[in-house]
Write a structure and sequence with these properties.
Helix content: 40-55%
Structural class: alpha/beta
Distance between the termini: 17 Å
Bound molecules: flavin-adenine dinucleotide
Strand content: 5-15%
């Protein structure tokens, strides 16, 4: 099923996972996936390494297993920064052979030591290419606080409009910790004429190292409430985990109350965390099933 069709019926709830590191057997992810599948998410997406070489096969194998063995909808991410058009064409063929209908089309970030290819300059080029060469449902990323490389949010939204017009069917946001950024972004993109479903990416932060890594990578703002929480419970891992989960649940409740199209949980391959969130918000998500 194409993910964009899901939004016609309900508030969507989905998970994201990443393939195990290169030195870890791929099987190690399957126990996690089985636990995630049991929560009956609307789909599970699988990230892709921007180097293009490290985990191309892993992303495909895992997305295929989700779809064909677990019978849960899957989304394969693809970053194009280090790929030629021929390589992407081959990959689209492999997705088709594996019955995968959904792709998250990304530029990706430069990888140290690899000179980017020139075939795709922006994710919008990849979106056009996929739409011309396949009938895949195309997802893309968006940034409620603006992409870190964009001069300002307005410019980034102009670029997002170009990307959506190239054929995006469904957007997923970068994580954020202050919902007001999302509401402001939603108003602005609607005014720009972007009307595809926007699923909100939420990452429960459950330890300090994760928080520091994520924040330095994504450049998102930390509300005072979040910083106070992290500082207060920094030396108590269990308390910090529970506080991080409660923070994410509170964010999700507010987002659902404000009518978001869906919630995409960055699970960090932690099915217990996903389970705690699922338990806390499942009834609220289902209450969005009135959509027709
Ligand atoms: P783009 O949409 O191309 O945007 C990148 C920058 O270029 C922005 O600043 C934008 O404003 C600018 N831009 C776009 N079009 C134009 C134009 N026409 N002219 C001038 N400037 C322009 N990374 C991975 O490596 N693997 C993953 O699996 C992965 N999954 C992700 C999933 C989600 C939901 C999100 C939010 C991010 C993900 N990323 C992933 C990170 C992503 O690859 C990086 O954020 C990357 O820097 C941007 O990718 P993009 O597809 O958003 O790029």
């Amino acid at each position: 099923m194409k993910t964009a069709d899901l939004f016609k019926e309900k508030t969507v709830f989905s998970f994201e996972i990443f393939p195990p590191r290169k030195d870890t057997p791929i099987e190690s992810i399957y126990t996690t996936l089985e636990a995630l599948r049991d929560m009956t998410p609307d789909f599970i997406s699988v990230t892709y390494s921007a180097s293009g070489r490290a985990n191309k096969d892993a992303t495909l194998a895992i997305a295929s297993r989700i779809k064909n063995e677990y019978h849960t909808e899957s989304v394969a991410h693809l970053t194009c920064i280090n790929h030629t058009k021929d390589e992407v064409r081959d990959l689209l063929g492999e997705l088709k052979e594996n019955n995968i209908e959904n792709i998250l089309a990304l530029l990706g970030d430069p990888v140290p030591g690899i000179t980017p290819r020139e075939d795709f300059k922006h994710a919008s080029d990849l979106v056009s290419f996929i739409k011309q060469s396949s009938d895949l449902n195309v997802l893309a990323a968006c940034y409620p606080e603006g992409h870190p490389a964009a001069p300002d949010l307005e410019t980034d939204i102009r670029h997002l409009k170009t990307k959506v017009d190239a054929g995006v069917d469904h957007l997923i946001t970068q994580l954020f910790f202050d919902n007001s950024y999302f509401y402001n972004f939603r108003d602005k993109i609607t005014a720009t004429g972007i009307h595809v479903p926007v699923e909100v990416g939420i990452m429960p932060v459950i330890n300090k190292a994760q928080a520091e890594r994520v924040i330095s990578m994504c450049g998102v703002q930390l509300p005072k409430k979040f910083r106070v929480m992290m500082d207060r419970f920094a030396d108590n891992p269990e308390a910090l985990r529970d506080a991080g989960l409660a923070y994410a649940v509170e964010q999700i409740i507010d987002l659902l109350a404000n009518g978001v199209d869906g919630i995409h949980l960055y699970t960090m391959n932690n099915s217990l965390v996903a389970h705690r969130i699922d338990e806390a918000v499942r009834t609220l998500i289902k209450s969005g099933s009135w959509k027709s």
